[in-house]
Specification:
With 349 residues, the protein is of the alpha/beta class. It contains 10 helices and 13 strands. The chain has 3 domains: 171 residues, Thiolase/Chalcone synthase (Peroxisomal Thiolase, Chain A, domain 1, 3-Layer(aba) Sandwich), CATH 3.40.47.10; 125 residues, 3-Layer(aba) Sandwich (Peroxisomal Thiolase, Chain A, domain 1), CATH 3.40.47; 34 residues, no CATH class. The site of oxa(dethia)-CoA (UT7) has 22 residues, from helix 1, helix 5 and helix 7.
Length: 349
């Protein structure tokens, strides 16, 4: 059975830099608070020239495809991870397929938020190993800036998110011990509402236990998005930050250890850990827990903020471009986020 290797990778971030101080125009916050609690100094927002989650994904994918030494016509499957799609439906996968003039290949959309890229990678790995596909394009892209609560009410979320995209091309390799060694995926829906965007959604206003027995005439046609929801700012993501933080610092080390153990390896064997860029304090906590040196962990949240599904492929590509990943290195990817969902992937480069 072939192993799956990363044959090409690319990333794109908009040139529109938004510093912490730029956010003071909209909300009561401070550069000091954001840096101390998150490590973020600035983030990128999509340009207002029609830039979308898909167009950013296309830019990252174009680089990844070229570096893999193939053309868009050679891609035989697309997996697109995002929580900020251009449309409620259809997903970004088909929009990318159209924009890149690809063949009538399968296009799958993954909705696993911050762990979307690790989930997507895992799915692609299975298709490659079984011989189903030879060139899978995996994209993680987010345009958060379109839909955040920029008032003080939403500051715990809006200061952390940024826009951008990353992509990889996966191919089979017969080189022994090379490529994706294993992936590990988990979820716990008990905490689904702790980090969520409820609308548009089919829950109406009744996402708790209350069932809607009879439709209120006035509600029909407004179930996805009503004026009331907008008036009450229910169309923005919400998060119980401290609860998410507490769970993240447990699940990150756990799922990394799970990957190491599955391969008979230890944390000292890791050449580079690329954690989902949720919060620098979380990454530092994980580093401390696993007794990793600074050289063993890659962070770029300072520049881009939290780009959810895009954060790992952007960081992976940036680390690779900086020469921090060399052939034979053991690279560990790990993510945790809304759902809750979390996962890891261990790759021999
Ligand atoms: O990527 C997906 C997964 N997401 C995560 O992993 C995020 C995990 N959580 C976090 O990163 C942190 O919880 C946050 C960065 C979101 C928040 O940091 P925190 O240290 O947990 O702050 P907090 O929510 O406990 O709030 C502390 C105080 C509150 O004020 P009071 O009640 O103590 O007066 C907040 O209102 O900080 C206030 N606050 C802010 N102040 C200035 C919250 N956001 C801000 C802000 N600027 N942007």
């Amino acid at each position: 059975m072939p192993q799956t290797k990363i044959a090409g990778l690319g990333y794109y971030v908009p040139d529109n830099v938004i510093t912490n101080n730029d956010l003071l125009k909209y909300m009561d916050t401070s550069d000091e608070w954001i840096i101390e609690r998150t490590g973020i100094k600035e983030r990128r927002y999509a340009n207002r020239t029609g830039e979308t989650t898909t167009t950013m994904g296309v830019k990252a994918a174009t680089i990844a495809i070229e570096r893999a030494g193939i053309t868009a016509q050679d891609v035989d499957f697309i997996i697109f991870a995002t929580l900020s799609p251009d449309y409620y439906f259809p997903g970004c996968g088909v929009l990318l397929q159209r924009a890149m003039h690809m063949k009538e290949i399968g296009a799958l959309d993954v909705r696993n938020q911050c762990s979307g890229f690790v989930y997507a990678l895992s799915i692609a790995d299975q298709f490659i190993k079984t011989g189903m596909y030879k060139n899978i394009l995996v994209v993680g892209s987010e345009k958060h800036s379109f839909g955040l609560d920029f008032s003080t009410r939403g500051r715990n979320i809006s200061v952390i998110f940024g826009d951008g995209a990353g992509a990889v091309v996966l191919q089979p390799t017969s080189e022994a011990g090379q490529g994706i060694l294993s992936t590990h995926l988990h979820s716990d829906g008990q905490s689904a509402e702790l980090l969520a965007m409820f609308n548009p959604g089919t829950h109406g206003n009744h996402w708790h236990e209350e069932a809607v027995a009879d439709f209120d005439e006035a509600e029909i046609g407004q179930m996805f998005m009503s004026h009331n929801m907008i008036d009450n700012a229910q169309n923005f993501p919400t998060m119980d930050g401290p609860s998410v933080f507490k769970k993240a610092v447990v699940k990150f080390p756990e799922v990394i250890k799970e990957a190491l153990s599955a391969n008979g390896l230890q944390s000292t064997d890791i050449n580079l850990l690329i954690p989902h860029q949720a919060n620098l304090r979380i990454a530092q906590f994980v580093q401390h827990q696993l007794k990793l040196s600074d050289e063993q962990v890659f962070n770029n949240i300072e520049k881009y903020g939290n780009t959810t599904a895009a954060s790992i492929p952007i960081a992976l590509c940036e680390a690779w471009e900086q020469g921090k990943i060399k052939k034979g290195d053991l690279v560990c990817l790990a993510a945790f986020g809304s759902g809750f969902t979390w996962g890891s992937a261990l790759i021999r480069w």
